User: Fold this.
Amino acid sequence: MKAVTVPQTVHVEPVNDLIAHITDGEDCPCGPAVEPVPDGDGAMGWLVIHHSLDGREQREPHRQRPGGNQ
Ligand SMILES: [Zn+2]
Assistant:
């Protein structure tokens, strides 16, 4: 039985990006999207999705930028 109910934060970040993404709770310069994710035991976790800053996302056709018309 898991006794820890501290919300978890999972970071998804691009590998080999131009910058080092900040995953320790500070604001990251890439402006990551944060989504609440319900944990199995009722706690709420966070999924932090970092964006690559080297332009690769513009070559990924199925990726949509949040709120973007770009
Ligand atoms: Zn980032």
User: Anything to note?
Assistant: The beta strands are 9-12, 33-38, 44-49. The CA atoms of residues 21 and 27 lie 9 Å apart. The first strand starts at residue 9 and ends at 12.
